[in-house]
Design goal:
2 copies of one chain form a homodimer. In chain A, α8 packs across α9. By secondary structure, chain A is α/β, with parallel strands linked by helices. Chain A starts with a strand and ends in a 9-residue tail after the last strand. Chain A has 10 helices and 13 strands. The longest helix of chain A has 25 residues. In chain A, the strands form 3 sheets. In chain A, strands 3-2-1-4-7-13 form a 6-stranded mixed beta sheet. Chain A has a 5-stranded mixed beta sheet with strand order 10-9-8-11-12, sandwiched between helices. A two-stranded antiparallel sheet of chain A has the order 5-6. Chain A has 2 domains: about 130 residues, Nucleotidyltransferase, domain 5 (2-Layer Sandwich), CATH 3.30.420.40; about 170 residues, ATPase, nucleotide binding domain (Nucleotidyltransferase, domain 5, 2-Layer Sandwich). Chains A and B meet through β9 and α8 of A and β9 and α8 of B.
Chain lengths: ~325, ~325
C-alpha cells in the first residue's frame, strides 16, 4: 500500500491506495494558513498518519508516500520551487526530504496537477486518449498535458494553463504577470473580485458562505449562489469561463489534442452545463475545425491524492521522480 | 538526390539536396495569385524541373519530391485541407497525388512549417535542444513544436502559434477567428493595416515598395522603412511584436521549452534587435523565472525547402508521411 498527499491551497487530502489505485483509507484537513513550511510539514505528516490508521496499516508498512505539491517542483532535490497558492511555500523549500525525515518512509514529490492528470490518464477520463489537456479549475487554475500517451513535462513545469495570457495588460495575477487565465477564473481571484463587487451590487455569495459556516467562497457556495439567481456570481463566472476559453482555445491551437478534461473544485461542482459553456468559449479561440472532446474529470477531489500515491511506483521513465528514504542512504536530510 | 518544395503565400522555393541536406540546385518563382490549384500544381512542377536542371539531374533521377504546404495537411491522402494564405488552396485539394502524377516521382507532403522546424532541428538553430518552439514570421505566422527531441504533431496540425489568441475580441484574422497573433503580426495583416494607416498618416512604406519594383510590402521594404525612421512601420511592427510576445509567452508557459527559434522573412530581415524585442515582449507573458533561449533560425529562406526535401527520407516514425508513387501501385491518382 502507498499513501498519496494532495497539498492544495485549501486542503490537505491524503489517500492510502492498494493495487490498481483502489482507495482503502483517507483523511483530510484544511491547509494551515500561517506558521510557514514547518507547520505544513507537521500537518501533512499527521494527515498521512490518520489516513494510514483509517486503512488499518502502520505508517512504517507503507511502500512510499507521494506528495503532489502546487507549482514548480525540483524533483531531483525534492524541493518546491515556486508556489503561488499555499501560504508558507512562497520560497523554495525541500518538502520531500522534510516529510521523509518525519515519517521514516520513502517520499516522492511531484507537481500536484501533473499527478492528477496522470491519475486521470491511467484511471479516469483520460483513458483511451493519446493526447489531452487537463484543466483543474479550483483555488487556482492548474493544467497538465498528455502528448503521445505521456505526461509532457518540458523542463519540468509544462502545462501551466492558468498562466496563459487571457487578456494582455489585464488584471494582475498572484504570479506577478498580468491578464493570466487564473486572474479571472481562479477561485481565489473570483473571491477577491466578489468582495469588491459586493460593495457596489447586491449578492448572496457572502450570506451563503456564512450560513454554511465557511470563511471562503467555496465551489459549493458559488453553485448555490447561481441556483439562487445571483447576478454577481453569474457575471463573474461568465467572465471566468471567457478567460478559460481563451486559454484552452490557445492551448488546443498549439497542441491539437484529442480531448480536454476539466476537473478541480469548480469544474466538478459546476458540472456539465458549465463544461459546455467552457467548450463554446474555447471554440471561439480554436483554429481547427475539428475541436477536441470536452469531458469532466472522473476521479473527483481524490484524483490528486490518488495520482500522488502512484508517484515512485515502479520505473517511470515518463515522469522523473526522486524518492527520499530516511535511512543512512538518504540523499538529503 | 531529393527535391524539396516550399510552397508559401508569396513564393515557391525549390531545392535539390544531396546527402546531409546539402543544396546542389535551386529555383524559385512567385506563387500564382489566380488560376486555382491547377495553376499552383503547374508552377510547382515547372519550378522542380528548373531546380533539377540547375543541379544537373533529370527529374526522373530524383528519389523523392517533398512538398511543404501551408495549413492543415492530411498526410494519409496527400490532401491540403485548410490553408489561409495561398490563393487557390482555400478548399481541400489532393496536392500530393496531383504533383506526383505530373512528375512521375514519389511525392511526400508535409506542413510547410513542420518541415522547416524539422530542418532547423536537424541542421540549424535547433541542434542540441530537446525542446523548442519554432516561430516563422512571414506572410503569416507559422509555428512548430519540438518536444522530447521530436516534432509534436498532435492530431496532425499542432504548433499553430499564429492563431493563438493575442487579444480576445480583437482584429479579425484570415482564419475567421478574432485576435490571432497573425492578425497583428503576419505580413499580410501588417500590409492591410499599413494601407489603412497611409490614408491618415505619412509613411514611406509604399514609396519604397514602388521604388523597389514590388507590389507587396516585402520584409526588405519594412526594414528599409524602419531605417528611414518611418513611424507607421515602427508602430505597426511594435504592435506585431506585442502580439508575438503574447503568443510566444503563452506557448512557453504551456510547454516549458528550452529555446524559441524565430525565422521567416520578417524574422530574418529584422534580425537580432527585433529578436530581443520579441524576447522582452514574451517575458511579460511567461510564467517561469528561467525563460528559454531566443535564437534566429539558421537555414534562412531555404529552410522550408530543405526540410521538405527530407520528407519521405527513410523511416520516420515521428512524422507520418505518405509517399505517392505514379506507378501502377499508386494509391491515388
Amino acid at each position: 500500500m502507498r499513501a498519496g498527499v494532495d497539498l492544495g491551497g485549501t486542503k490537505i487530502q491524503v489517500v492510502v491506495t492498494a493495487k490498481g489505485a483502489r482507495v482503502v483509507g483517507q483523511a483530510r484537513r484544511n491547509t494551515p494558513l500561517r506558521g510557514g513550511p514547518e507547520v505544513i510539514v507537521r500537518d501533512v505528516v499527521s494527515t498521512v498518519r490518520e489516513a494510514a490508521a483509517a486503512a488499518g496499516v502502520d505508517v512504517g508498512e507503507l511502500q512510499s508516500v507521494g506528495v503532489g505539491a502546487p507549482g514548480s517542483i525540483d524533483t531531483t532535490t525534492g524541493t518546491v520551487i515556486q508556489v503561488a497558492n499555499v501560504a508558507g511555500l512562497d520560497e523554495p523549500f525541500p518538502l520531500g526530504p522534510a516529510v521523509a525525515a518525519e515519517l521514516g518512509v520513502p517520499v516522492a514529490l511531484g507537481n500536484d496537477v501533473s499527478v492528477a492528470v496522470e491519475a486521470e490518464r491511467r484511471y479516469g477520463a483520460g483513458r483511451g486518449y493519446r493526447s489531452f489537456l487537463g484543466v483543474f479549475w479550483g483555488t487556482g487554475v492548474g493544467g497538465g498535458l498528455v502528448v503521445d500517451g505521456r505526461l509532457l513535462l518540458g523542463r519540468g513545469s509544462a502545462g501551466e494553463i492558468g498562466h496563459v495570457c487571457a487578456k494582455p495588460g489585464g488584471r494582475r495575477c498572484n504570479c506577478g504577470l498580468r491578464g493570466c487565465v487564473e486572474a479571472y477564473a481562479g477561485r481565489g481571484a473570483l473571491e477577491a473580485r466578489a468582495r469588491r463587487e459586493a460593495r457596489k451590487r447586491k449578492t448572496v455569495l457572502f450570506d451563503l458562505m456564512r450560513k454554511r459556516g465557511r470563511d471562503q467562497l467555496t465551489s459549493g457556495v458559488w453553485l448555490r449562489a447561481l441556483d439562487a439567481g445571483d447576478l454577481v456570481a453569474r457575471d463573474l463566472l461568465r467572465e471566468a469561463v471567457g478567460a478559460l476559453g481563451v486559454g484552452i482555445g490557445s492551448a488546443v491551437t498549439l497542441l491539437d489534442v484529442e480531448a480536454v478534461i476539466v476537473g478541480g473544485g469548480l469544474g466538478e461542482r459546476l458540472g456539465p452545463t458549465w463544461l459546455s459553456r467552457i467548450e463554446q468559449a474555447a471554440r471561439e479561440h480554436t483554429f481547427f475545425r475539428e475541436t477536441p472532446v470536452f469531458k469532466l474529470a472522473e476521479l473527483g477531489d481524490m484524483g490528486g491524492a490518488i495520482g500522488a500515491s502512484m508517484l515512485g511506483s515502479g520505473p517511470r521513465s515518463d515522469h522523473k521522480v526522486q524518492t527520499y528514504a530516511d535511512g543512512p542512504s538518504a540523499r538529503m536530510r
